[in-house]
Amino acid sequence: MNQPLSPDPTLRHRSHEVTLRLLRPDGTAYADTDVVVEQTRHAFAFGNVGFDFIGLANGDTAESPGAVFGGADAETAERLVDLWLAVFNTATLPFYWSGFEPVRGEPETERLLTAARWFRDRGVSLKGHPLAWHTLSPAWLLDAPAEEVEQVLRARIRREVTAFDGLVDTWDAINELVIMPVFDNEDRQNAITRLCRRLGRIPMARLAFEEARAAGPGVRLVLNDFNMSTAYECLIEGVLEAGIRVDAIGLQSHMHQGYWGEERTLEILDRFARFGLPLHLSETTLLSGDLMPAEIEDLNDHQVPSWPSTPEGEARQADELVRHYRTLLSHPSVEAITYWGLTDLGSWLGAPAGLVRADGTPKPAYDALHRLVKDEWWLGPTRLRTDAEGRMKVRGWAGDYRVDIEDSTAAFELGPDTSRTGVTVTP
C-alpha cells in the first residue's frame, strides 16, 4: 500500500507552468510578438450523467420517445444542452442491464451508440455505468441456472465493451460488489446476486474485470461502490492481492441525509488513497430541499409524494457544493467527480438533487460550480508576449489550450509532463 499524498487546499498541484516556444513553419521564432492563450478543456474529469440527452441525440419526439432511461424529454433536453456543456466534459451513459436489454437478444446498442457519438462530437469523454450489477438485472435471466447466468453475463460484458470501443473510455466494471452476494430483492433473489453468492466476491470481480479487459485492452476499469466502510477496503485489498488490475476506485457520495463535511470527506479519501489508485467520486449529490431523515438506513426506503427544492435548501446546496468540490480537488488522488444529475427531473428517489430546477432554470449551485470550473479554475483568453527567442511561460490547470498568434492558431497541452519538458508550437 502507498502513503497517500497530503491534501493541499491551495490546489497548487492542479496547475502547472510550461514554457512555450512559438515557431513559424519555416523554423523562425515569433520573436517579441503578442499572442492570446486560452484554455479549451480541463484534463480533470468534471462529469455528470448524460441520460437527459439520449432522446435528443436520437431525434425523439413526444410521439415517438423511444426507450427511456430517465431524465428530460427531447424538447426539454434541447434547452439544457448549453447548461450541461458549459460546465461538464465527461458524461456517464446508462447500461443498466434491465433497461439496456429488456428483451433477451434485443439490446439498445444503436440507441446508446448514437448518444455516445453525439457526446463525442461535442468533445465530451464517456463512461459506461455499469457492466455488472445485481440491481436492475433483467427479469428474463431470473430463472436461468447459475452456469447460464455466468455465461450470459460474460457475453454481455464483452458485447458492450466491444461495441463501444473508441467511444466509451471508462467503465464501471462492477458496481456495489460489497452488498452484491447478500442483496435482498424482496421475494425473489436476482440472478446476479445468486451468481455472486455462488462464486464469491473476488471471483465475481475477476469475471467482470478480465472480460472487460479482454474486450477492450485500452479502456479504464473502475471498481465502484457506495459502501465507504472498512468492508469496501477489505474487498479492494482482496481484489488487488488476487492480481486483478483495477484502474480506479469509485466512491459514491449521495448526501441525501446531509453534507459529509470536510473532515469526514478527507478521512474517506485518505483511507482509499492508500491503495495508490486514482479516486473517482462516481456519484455525487447534494440536496436543495429537506434532507432525508437520519434514521433511514436504505435510502431507497424513503418515499415521499413531493420533495421540492426550497430557497433555503438551494442556498445550502450551493455552499456545500463549493466546499465539497474544493475538498475533493484538494486531494491529489482525486481524478474525477461526477455529479449525479443536471436537473430535478427524473432524479433518483425524486429528490431535489439537481443543479437545475425542474423548470430548466439554474439553481445557485449550478452558478457556483460554473464559476469554479470555468472561471476560478480556468484560464480565459489571456494576452501574453514572446521574448526574443519566441518563448513565453503559461500557467494554468492541466488540460488543452490554444494560442492565437498573428493570423494563426495552434493547440497544446498543459500538464505535469509538459511542465518538465516544455512545448514547441508551430501554428
UniProtKB/TrEMBL annotation:
<keyword id="KW-0858">Xylan degradation</keyword>
<dbReference type="GO" id="GO:0031176">
    <property type="term" value="F:endo-1,4-beta-xylanase activity"/>
</dbReference>
<protein>
    <recommendedName>
        <fullName>Beta-xylanase</fullName>
        <ecNumber>3.2.1.8</ecNumber>
    </recommendedName>
</protein>
<keyword id="KW-0378">Hydrolase</keyword>
<dbReference type="InterPro" id="IPR017853">
    <property type="entry name" value="GH"/>
</dbReference>
<keyword id="KW-0624">Polysaccharide degradation</keyword>
<keyword id="KW-0732">Signal</keyword>
<dbReference type="InterPro" id="IPR044846">
    <property type="entry name" value="GH10"/>
</dbReference>
<dbReference type="InterPro" id="IPR001000">
    <property type="entry name" value="GH10_dom"/>
</dbReference>
<comment type="similarity">
    <text>Belongs to the glycosyl hydrolase 10 (cellulase F) family.</text>
</comment>
<dbReference type="Pfam" id="PF00331">
    <property type="entry name" value="Glyco_hydro_10"/>
</dbReference>
<keyword id="KW-0119">Carbohydrate metabolism</keyword>
<keyword id="KW-0326">Glycosidase</keyword>
<dbReference type="GO" id="GO:0045493">
    <property type="term" value="P:xylan catabolic process"/>
</dbReference>
<feature type="domain" description="GH10">
    <location>
        <begin position="61"/>
        <end position="372"/>
    </location>
</feature>
